[in-house]
Design a protein that fits this description.
The chain has 2 domains: 178 residues, Rossmann fold (3-Layer(aba) Sandwich); 85 residues, N-(1-d-carboxylethyl)-l-norvaline Dehydrogenase, domain 2 (Orthogonal Bundle). It has an 8-stranded mixed beta sheet, with helices on both faces. The chain is globular, with a radius of gyration of 20 Å. 48% of the residues lie in helices and 14% in strands. Strand 7, helix 7 and strand 8 form a beta-alpha-beta unit. It contains 12 helices and 8 strands. The chain binds nicotinamide-adenine-dinucleotide (NAD). The site of nicotinamide-adenine-dinucleotide has 24 residues, from helix 1, helix 5 and strand 6.
């Protein structure tokens, strides 16, 4: 089994490393050489910490790092791949161009998967001549830690392609679920958005403070982080844009972003990364 990963950002770098940790040879491509160096350094850092904690043998860490072959030449990266996972910027035109190119240069039997969180595979598969071999394979950040993969079939995805994606996810040591319909937000973000939206409604209505809503969710539902703490962790701009996207796509008032959330984003208080969001850091 040979895997190629296209895009070596926060997701692609760790998707490649997770596969390599499980014995899979990976070609990791990015158009930006600096991103490839950053990906290798960052993965080395993660694996070194596992070695320090005694959770990974030093030799196994080195082997896993050497199984990720970085390259800026896309044709070389996908030449002998059975499976390609695309993880470039969340831009449909960029992704469609890549899918069209992959269709030309990858083996005709290779599966083309996208890690996109919001772009359904049908929008990318239509740029190829192999829509039956295209599928969404949605990993979660940070991939080296988060166990789940959502496999989402488009209207043309074949059973064999879903099977191949399931097999790969399992070979990578991950738990996979299959969505038989292409829906916005897939399962996890759909449920997360609904719960978060309800938390914002309670805040907007003055029912409780954001701290108390977080405490209620953490202690009463056993979530590791309440919705406001989680928003600060992921970036309030990410939460806001996800909401705005769902609102625009569905036109459903239930998804309209909270005015209090919008105010935070407009004030540049985006969470941990800016030193302040709902909480101060
Ligand atoms: N970050 C998350 O939490 C998360 C979670 C699940 C899924 N995703 C999805 O993963 C994908 C990547 O997200 P990310 O956070 O890793 O992005 P990122 O910005 O960290 O990385 C994107 C990478 O793609 C590269 N790239 C852009 N255009 C390219 C091209 N034409 N050819 C080759 N490389 C190219 C960039 O150089 C960059 O290294 C997106 O589709 C996103 O929806 C992200």
């Amino acid at each position: 089994m040979k895997l190629a990963v296209v895009g070596a950002g926060s997701m692609g770098a760790q998707i490649a490393q997770q596969a390599a940790l499980n014995g899979i040879d990976v070609a990791l491509h990015d158009e930006d050489e600096a991103q490839l160096r950053k990906a290798v350094d960052s993965n080395r850092g993660h694996l070194s910490r596992r070695v320090e904690k005694g959770r990974l043998a030093p030799g196994d860490a080195e082997t896993a790092i050497s199984r990720v072959h970085v390259m800026t030449d896309l044709s070389q990266a996908v030449a002998d791949a059975d499976f390609v996972i695309e993880a470039v910027f969340e831009d449909v035109d960029v992704k469609r161009a890549i899918f069209a190119e992959l269709d030309h240069i990858a083996a005709p039997a290779a599966v083309l998967a996208s890690n996109s969180s919001t772009i359904g595979i049908s929008q990318l598969a239509s740029a190829t001549t192999r829509p039956a071999r295209c599928v969404n394979m949605h990993f979660f950040y940070p991939v080296l830690v988060m166990d789940l993969v959502e496999i989402v079939r488009g209207p043309h995805t074949s059973d064999e392609t879903v099977e191949a994606a399931l097999k790969l996810a399992r070979a990578m040591g991950r738990t996979a679920v299959v969505l038989n319909k292409e829906i916005d937000g897939f399962i996890v973000n759909r449920i997360l958005h609904a719960a978060t939206q309800e938390a914002y409604r309670l805040l907007d209505a003055g029912v409780a403070t954001f701290e108390d809503i977080d405490t209620a969710v953490e202690k009463g539902l056993n979530w590791p982080m309440g919705p406001f703490r989680l928003g600060d962790f992921s970036g309030l701009d990410v939460t806001y844009n996800a909401r705005l996207h769902m609102f625009r796509v569905t036109g459903d008032e239930r998804y309209r972003p909270s005015p209090l959330l919008e105010a935070k984003v407009k004030a540049g208080k985006l969470g941990r990364k800016t030193g302040e969001g709902w909480y101060r850091y």
